[in-house]
Amino acid sequence: MWSVDKNVDKDFDYPQIKKAAQLLRDGNTVAFPTETVYGLGADATSDQAVQGIFNAKGRPSDNPLIVHISSASQLTELVLHVDHTAKALIEHFWPGPLTLIFKKKPGVFSEMVTAGLDTVGIRMPNHPVALAVIEEAGKPVAAPSANRSGKPSPTSAQHVYHDLNGRIAAIIDGGETGVGVESTVLDCTVTPPMILRPGGVSAEEIRDWIGEVVVDPSLEDWDEKPKSPGMKYTHYAPTAPLFVTKGSHQWLQETIAAYQQDGKKVGLLAPIETINHIKADFLVACGTEDDLSTTAHSLYESIRAFDEEAVDIILAQSVELRGIGVAIMNRLVKAAGHKWLIEHQDDRSL
Ligand code: TXA
Ligand code: MG
């Protein structure tokens, strides 16, 4: 595994960056850090290279990949039309954790990138290593999160190594990622634009900038079929069964005690404010309720921590559905396979 100083500026003398870019040009898969999670990159114009991503991850072929670019000016070569709303979003949020869906230009990408759709998701990541590798490769880089399909996304090079060692050409170690959850996916082919996956940029932030934004109904009603292919899969799942909880500290403590009386070892994932008040067999403090960006930052590392412990059940406390809390709850509910434990039955907010 290579180590690259996270604060590298776009200095292409870096031998590791050059080597990674060469590997990409030669059709290999390379994992690199972005500001959200680690991505597993390949040349988006090569069928064989993109196939390498699906093979390494064990990813279903009907789930399209996001194409990463290092400069917004590349966009016109890749997509049919960028309207004024998309331009405003790009100016404000790129580089950053916002993926925009456009009608694709035919014949530019491998068909596997877009899984047969006539649209493509494009993003310019806000991380110097990612930007340098993409620019040096001189190609649009298809990159899903660098985890085995179904597992939590990797937020450190060690997570990538754990999941994909021996299956990919290289990992660039840029330290821990910052945001911790993936980019927001926003469909710009419809008016008003529609959020298909909540992520690092909140609906409130997008609304503040462009006005009206709608949310894919399946994100709020679990009986609806998601519009984004990737959203229908179980995801982020630890080995032990996970339940999302909503209720008072007293109820939570009683719930844990009841499982323990049945001989079960109980793990609890919650912000520090709860962890300080509750006893369980294995406690993982995940950020603070006062600043949910800290919870997002540690979320996947926290979920992965349970795989190292022999717990029989994991309870994960829900967070408030505001700002980045929407993305956190989306990931938790998916990790739980939609299993909830709720103190007051009418209190389910998703
Ligand atoms: O933060 C991120 O977005 C990370 C880093 C590596 O950039 N990437 C990432 O990629 O999360 P991935 O493949 O794990 O998730 C891509 C999501 C999937 O839910 C996929 O279905 C959706 O984006 N997507 C991609 N292209 C799409 C399209 N044309 N239409 C609808 N959804 C699309
Ligand atoms: Mg993923």
UniProtKB/TrEMBL annotation:
<keyword id="KW-0963">Cytoplasm</keyword>
<dbReference type="InterPro" id="IPR005145">
    <property type="entry name" value="Sua5_C"/>
</dbReference>
<feature type="binding site">
    <location>
        <position position="145"/>
    </location>
    <ligand>
        <name>ATP</name>
    </ligand>
</feature>
<feature type="binding site">
    <location>
        <position position="63"/>
    </location>
    <ligand>
        <name>ATP</name>
    </ligand>
</feature>
<feature type="binding site">
    <location>
        <position position="59"/>
    </location>
    <ligand>
        <name>ATP</name>
    </ligand>
</feature>
<keyword id="KW-0819">tRNA processing</keyword>
<dbReference type="GO" id="GO:0005737">
    <property type="term" value="C:cytoplasm"/>
</dbReference>
<dbReference type="GO" id="GO:0005524">
    <property type="term" value="F:ATP binding"/>
</dbReference>
<dbReference type="InterPro" id="IPR017945">
    <property type="entry name" value="DHBP_synth_RibB-like_a/b_dom"/>
</dbReference>
<feature type="binding site">
    <location>
        <position position="143"/>
    </location>
    <ligand>
        <name>L-threonine</name>
    </ligand>
</feature>
<keyword id="KW-0548">Nucleotidyltransferase</keyword>
<dbReference type="InterPro" id="IPR006070">
    <property type="entry name" value="Sua5-like_dom"/>
</dbReference>
<feature type="binding site">
    <location>
        <position position="123"/>
    </location>
    <ligand>
        <name>L-threonine</name>
    </ligand>
</feature>
<comment type="similarity">
    <text>Belongs to the SUA5 family.</text>
</comment>
<dbReference type="InterPro" id="IPR038385">
    <property type="entry name" value="Sua5/YwlC_C"/>
</dbReference>
<dbReference type="Pfam" id="PF01300">
    <property type="entry name" value="Sua5_yciO_yrdC"/>
</dbReference>
<dbReference type="GO" id="GO:0006450">
    <property type="term" value="P:regulation of translational fidelity"/>
</dbReference>
<comment type="function">
    <text>Required for the formation of a threonylcarbamoyl group on adenosine at position 37 (t(6)A37) in tRNAs that read codons beginning with adenine.</text>
</comment>
<dbReference type="GO" id="GO:0003725">
    <property type="term" value="F:double-stranded RNA binding"/>
</dbReference>
<feature type="binding site">
    <location>
        <position position="236"/>
    </location>
    <ligand>
        <name>ATP</name>
    </ligand>
</feature>
<dbReference type="InterPro" id="IPR010923">
    <property type="entry name" value="T(6)A37_SUA5"/>
</dbReference>
<feature type="binding site">
    <location>
        <position position="119"/>
    </location>
    <ligand>
        <name>ATP</name>
    </ligand>
</feature>
<keyword id="KW-0067">ATP-binding</keyword>
<feature type="binding site">
    <location>
        <position position="197"/>
    </location>
    <ligand>
        <name>ATP</name>
    </ligand>
</feature>
<dbReference type="Pfam" id="PF03481">
    <property type="entry name" value="Sua5_C"/>
</dbReference>
<keyword id="KW-0547">Nucleotide-binding</keyword>
<keyword id="KW-0808">Transferase</keyword>
<dbReference type="InterPro" id="IPR050156">
    <property type="entry name" value="TC-AMP_synthase_SUA5"/>
</dbReference>
<feature type="domain" description="YrdC-like">
    <location>
        <begin position="14"/>
        <end position="201"/>
    </location>
</feature>
<protein>
    <recommendedName>
        <fullName>Threonylcarbamoyl-AMP synthase</fullName>
        <ecNumber>2.7.7.87</ecNumber>
    </recommendedName>
</protein>
<feature type="binding site">
    <location>
        <position position="183"/>
    </location>
    <ligand>
        <name>L-threonine</name>
    </ligand>
</feature>
<dbReference type="GO" id="GO:0061710">
    <property type="term" value="F:L-threonylcarbamoyladenylate synthase"/>
</dbReference>
<feature type="binding site">
    <location>
        <position position="68"/>
    </location>
    <ligand>
        <name>L-threonine</name>
    </ligand>
</feature>
<feature type="binding site">
    <location>
        <position position="153"/>
    </location>
    <ligand>
        <name>ATP</name>
    </ligand>
</feature>
<dbReference type="GO" id="GO:0008033">
    <property type="term" value="P:tRNA processing"/>
</dbReference>
<feature type="binding site">
    <location>
        <position position="36"/>
    </location>
    <ligand>
        <name>L-threonine</name>
    </ligand>
</feature>
<dbReference type="GO" id="GO:0000049">
    <property type="term" value="F:tRNA binding"/>
</dbReference>
